[in-house]
Amino acid sequence: MMVTWDDFAWFAAVAVVLWALGAVEAFRRHGRWAVASTAVGICVYAAFIVAFWAGLHRPPLRTIGETRLWYALFVVAAGLVTYLRWRYRWILLFTTVMAAVFAAMNILKPEIHDQTLMPALQSVWFVPHVTVYMFSYGVMGCAFILGVANMVTRSADYLRTADSMVYVGTAFLTLGMLSGALWAKEAWGDYWSWDPKETWAAVTWGLYLMYMHLRLRCQNRHARLAALLLVAGFAGLQMCWYGVNLLPSAQDSMHAYSQAAG
Amino acid sequence: MNKSRIYVAWVVYLVVACLCQALFGRFPADAFAFPVNVAIMLLWVIASWVVYRERKPAWLATLLLSPQTTFILLAAFVAVSLIQGFHSTGLSSAWWLVAVIAALLTHLLFVTMRGTRRDRSRLARFLLIHFGVLLAIGGGFWGAPDTRQWRMAVGEKNPTCEAIDSKGRVTYLDHELRLKHFNTELYPDGTPKSHAAKIVIDGKDEATLTVNHPYALSWKDDLYLMGATPQYCIIGWVSQPWKYVQWVGVWMIMAGAVLLFVQGAGHKTIKGGQT
């Protein structure tokens, strides 16, 4: 049986229910059930992506809608890892809400198209570039939640956890950006051309580097500034992902296919 | 040099860059083509090494090694990138961008020199990332005046060496190209699946160009398939002698990023203002 986009709502519903159950169990301090439920939800959701990929005969990474698929998966996965490592009871609730929002957006406004993959996207860099980016977006989504938690509670613990998330997220952000640079050289002749999408990637990267250097130097001083940088970095990611398509500067972008893609 | 003077020094530097932009317009990058760029780069490296080693003038060494400088220059980099991000035309030759990247590279050079001479944990990660960024951005910065991009409309009838550069000027290149065959494979719904252009270079060598697969014409020149019409195909000709420097830098940073993921934050207290 071939899995098509029409099946997404069922897979997403099951996955979101399982993630929500996991979030509830985490609040009830039933750690094992929380982990098991969330993990099974991730497997259900990942199974859809794998089967959809097979049915589509190309990686489902071309359109904004397709990248949202991955984001929902990675943000919950990052939340689960954070929960396993630091046992924040509330993190699964937030990642579940974020993933549910993105899954709902895909149901209401799918932007999933046909099996075609334009020549420009047929590159060995396509899958690593986009998946690595989406993974970093998911991890940075968790860091953003921790930054907001720090702003609300003023607890330094959240920023210490955010440090770990930002190191992981920045590592993947860097790999995503540079795999894009290597791809750009093969496709357009230059590693970097200050295209709007590239420029916003640079802005985001710079913001996270500011966070890392601030934390490295100042430890727990300037915590509010650090938390603000997490929020600004997350806003930069959203611009880089889809917000840039709304700007007039993006009309002549070499990433013009990303009016539909991520 | 105290903290507030460091902030003042960088604000003055950036204001001067903005004034240059207002007074002179675009940065004259073409004036720094080889060998001028190499000569200035060598002077820059040697001068930086002397200032770093001798710590003279002391204020300059302090300025370029201070953690405040890291933060200010990263913030300035974000700011100029934001201007770029919201602007509809390319500002890559604006004075303020050149000034920020030049300062960032100089600071990076100082920090990297200090990093090599200190016994620090995660030295490999530090060097891969910082030296990698130095090469990747430095290669783009110093190599920009030597980078040339042309577009050529290459048809089947007559070989051509006429090209248009990025400023719209017509020029004649060293090799003649002729289109031998162009093929487009389509999906069932009629959208293109692949393009392939077979071209003849100087009447003898044949090359097949496809999207994402450039043809290496020489150590610095590559040909790209950029588009096609029924009559001719558009070939991009890129001459970029510094691409190898950037390539090494990019892979060094990627290796450093893997170490960043593997080694993580660590929460080790670092004293003495190291960044």
Protein described:
The complex is a heterodimer of chains A (262) and B (275). Chain A has 262 residues and is mostly helical. Chain A folds into two domains: 1-112, no CATH class; 120-249, Up-down Bundle (Four Helix Bundle (Hemerythrin (Met), subunit A)). Chain A contains eight helices and no strands. The longest helix of chain A is centred in the middle third of the chain and has 33 residues, at 156-188. With 275 residues, chain B is an alpha+beta fold. Chain B is 48% helix and 24% strand. Chain B is built from seven helices and eight strands, in the order H-H-H-H-H-H-E-E-E-E-E-E-E-E-H. Chain B has an eight-stranded antiparallel β-sheet, with no helix packed on it. In chain B, strand 7 and strand 8 (232-239) form a beta hairpin. Chain B is elongated, with a radius of gyration of 23 Å. The model of chain B is unreliable at 269-275 (pLDDT under 50). At the A-B interface, helix 6 and helix 7 of A face helix 4, strand 4 and helix 7 of B.
Defining key terms:
heterodimer; A: 262 residues; mainly alpha; Four Helix Bundle (Hemerythrin (Met), subunit A); 2 domains; 73% helix; disordered C terminus; B: 275 residues; alpha+beta; Tick-borne Encephalitis virus Glycoprotein, domain 1; eight-stranded antiparallel beta sheet; 7 helices; 8 strands; elongated
Report helical residue fraction of chain B: 40-55%
The share of residues in extended strands of chain A comes to under 5%
CATH architecture verdict of the largest domain in chain A: Up-down Bundle
Count of β-strands of chain B: 8
The residue ranges of chain A in which pLDDT falls below 50 over 5 or more consecutive positions are: 258-262
Give the C-alpha Rg of chain B: 23 Å
Query: Segments of chain B where pLDDT lies below 50 for 5+ residues?
Result: 269-275
Number of domains of chain B: 2
In the CATH scheme, the class of the largest domain in chain A would be Mainly Alpha
Specify the biggest β-sheet of chain B. 8 strands, antiparallel
Q: Helix tally of chain A?
A: 8
**Count of alpha/pi helices of chain B:** 7
Domain count of chain A, please report it. 2
